[in-house]
Amino acid sequence: MAVTVLIPTPLQKFTKSKAKIECGGGNISELIDSLEANFPGIKKSLCDDQGEPRRFLNFYVNSEDIRFLEGTKTSLQDGDEVSIVPAVAGG
């Protein structure tokens, strides 16, 4: 199963400057583990010590925020697109 993952610029240092990669996983948690297997060190930037996505990162599956779905247990299907979007703050 292949899922397209859109990588934000700050994390492209782990993906050899690739903004779009193909990865596998039945859910977001498995996808993160697959990303780590293919791009060592990226999980530390994506997840906290409990393995949950960091507060300043948003994950979207086909434009749906996983916080309003099933979190890291959100199921993935072949052809899905996962976007990792850093939160933006300012004033």
From TrEMBL:
Signal peptide: none
Alphabetized SUPFAM superfamilies for the sequence: MoaD/ThiS
Pfam family, one: ThiS
InterPro entries assigned: Beta-grasp_dom_sf (IPR012675), MoaD_arc-typ (IPR010038), Mopterin_synth/thiamin_S_b (IPR016155), Sulfur_Carrier/Prot_Modifier (IPR052045), ThiS/MoaD-like (IPR003749)
Protein known as: MoaD/ThiS family protein
Species the sequence originates in: Okeania hirsuta
Lineage, highest ranks first: Bacteria, Bacillati, Cyanobacteriota, Cyanophyceae, Oscillatoriophycideae
